[in-house]
Design brief:
The complex is a heterodimer of chains A (242) and B (221). Chain A is mainly alpha-helical. Chain A contains seven helices and no strands. Chain B has one domain (2-217). Chain B has nine helices and no strands. The longest helix of chain B is centred in the middle third of the chain and has 31 residues, at 91-121. Chain B is globular and about 60 Å long. The relative contact order of chain B is 0.15. The chains are: A mainly alpha (242), B mainly alpha (221). Chain A binds chain B through residues 73, 125, 128-129, 132, 135-136, 139-141, 145, 148-149, 151-153, 155-157, 159-160, 163-164, 166-168, 170-171, and chain B through 146, 149-150, 153, 156-159, 163, 166-167, 169-171, 173-174, 177-178, 181, 195-196, 199, 202-203, 206, 210, 214, 217-218, 220.
Chain lengths: 242, 221
């Protein structure tokens, strides 16, 4: 079994992506420091440049998980399952960050760490579903069985998101959380750092996913006993070091 | 269709002969009532505790999980689960048979729980018995459908008793919100709110479709 196309692509892009991320982070930090302070919230508003982009990573992770799960069930190819598992792990990392960073901002502006607001609750539920997804994977034995179970659960998790949305809206919908940003709602000088923040999140997501996919692929081949000592050394330098 | 009825019949007969699932569920429901009685503060004026609809549904859900876990644990004996996977029809119909059996057991447990709540907390559930049963049945349908799907998954994992609630509870939120809201409104005003019922109906439909289709992939041959 040679590396599949997904793993090969991941191996190729992980190093450039890592370098790109490092450079972008420097620019991002500079822009956030330079960005004007919010008139009413003060300096704490700058956490916004981290908070909103991390949500992007979380949603992307869960979307890719469900999509790759569907592709696995359809095509019955293991590589899709490895992609799904990798995306779920990266998604959980981002989602955890959202749930850590959000309360810090909330404490600073709303005066409390947590409210049972629609969007907060949705994100928390999403986190629970995908942590359960990872637990399910680690508690199931046998590769194809794990893949089938996880695919079904990952897709069910995505299907329930809109239901949750309506249910929570029905349950009160009292919302402290700011609405989706509309064009022009940024103060002057806030748009660029935000855009770069989104780009950083996107590149960070892609980089972590590429690394994780490579690990999953290598692990699968090690388990099949097909990776020789010499073979691991060469591709391993590609991503892990960057 | 005959496969659905055959599996339903098999489940009900084996349950009737052993009675272990339903006894466990009923006993658990009674215990929950006792636990709630001691855990909740005594109200000075008497009467049912605040948040009774929520408590009722917590008891329903945990009793259901207890029963759902057993629904597939019994199939492990003599590799009966592999036999189910080999039934010569769409596995969706195997799902419908298993889910219907669980649905009936959950209904029974709900009835017993509601009676125990009414007696223990002096709650006027009897006055709204009809609509309450309807709401309970809508909830039971959703519980039985995704519950059956995830029980079939959980039974093939390590720590299966732990796995089922971890998989099930995060997805049950829309169902619980709709059911608790409908029950609360019913107890408060005697009316059934249509928005909560719509939510329950949509959730049931989505859960049924997902489980019917997903069941294809959760049985091992």
């Amino acid at each position: 079994m040679s590396p599949d196309p997904i793993e090969r692509a991941a191996a190729r892009v992980s190093r450039p992506l890592g370098a790109c991320l490092l450079a972008l982070l420097v620019v991002f930090a500079f822009l956030v420091i330079q960005a004007p302070e919010d008139r009413s919230q003060g300096v704490i508003q700058k956490i916004f440049y981290v908070h909103v982009p991390t949500v992007l990573g979380a949603y992307l992770g869960f979307f890719v998980t469900a999509l790759a799960g569907a592709l696995y069930l359809w095509r019955d190819e293991e590589r899709w399952d490895r992609l799904a598992a990798s995306a779920a792990e990266v998604g959980v990392v981002f989602c955890t960050l959202v749930l850590l960073v959000g309360p810090i901002w909330a404490k600073g502006t709303w005066g409390r760490w947590w409210t049972w607001d629609l969007r907060l609750t949705l994100t928390l539920l999403l986190w629970f579903v995908y942590v359960a997804y990872l637990l399910l994977r680690s508690f199931t034995e046998g590769g194809p069985r794990t893949a089938r179970f996880a695919s079904v659960y990952g897709m069910a998790g995505l299907v329930v998101i809109p239901l949750n949305y309506f249910a929570l809206e029905l349950a009160g919908g009292r919302s402290m959380h700011p609405e989706n940003l509309e064009g022009g709602s940024f103060g002057e000088g806030m748009g660029l750092p935000f855009a770069v923040g989104m780009l950083v999140a996107l590149v960070a997501f892609a980089w972590l996913l590429a690394l994780r996919v490579r690990i999953a692929g290598l692990r699968a081949r090690v388990e099949e006993g097909e990776v020789l000592a010499g073979e691991t050394a060469a591709p391993a330098r590609g991503g892990a070091g960057s | 269709m005959s496969a659905v009825l055959a599996i339903l019949w098999k489940d009900l007969v084996s349950e009737w002969r052993s009675r272990d699932r339903i006894v466990a569920m009923l006993l658990f429901s009674l215990l929950v009532v006792v636990v709630f009685h001691f855990a909740l503060p005594v109200r000075p004026g008497g009467g049912p505790p605040e948040g009774l609809p929520g408590l009722l549904w917590v008891a329903y859900v945990f009793a259901a999980i207890l029963g759902l876990n057993r629904a597939f644990a019994v199939e492990l004996e003599n590799e009966a689960l592999s036999g189910l996977a080999l039934v010569p029809c769409d596995r969706g119909f195997v799902f419908l048979g298993k889910a219907t059996a669980s649905f009936l057991l959950i209904l029974l447990a709900q009835l017993a729980t509601a009676v125990a709540f009414a007696l223990a907390f002096d709650a006027p559930l009897g006055r709204v018995g009809g609509p309450l049963a309807g709401i309970a049945a809508l909830g039971a349908a959703g519980l039985a459908s995704v519950g059956t799907l995830f029980a079939a998954i959980a039974v093939r994992t390590r720590y299966r008793e732990v796995m089922l609630p971890l998989l099930l509870l995060p997805l049950l939120v829309p169902l619980l919100l709709g059911a608790v809201r409908a029950t609360a409104e019913l107890l408060a005003s005697g009316r059934v709110p249509s928005d909560a019922i719509q939510l329950l109906l949509v959730t049931d439909a989505v859960f049924l479709i997902v489980s019917f289709v997903g069941f294809e992939y959760v049985l091992d041959e």
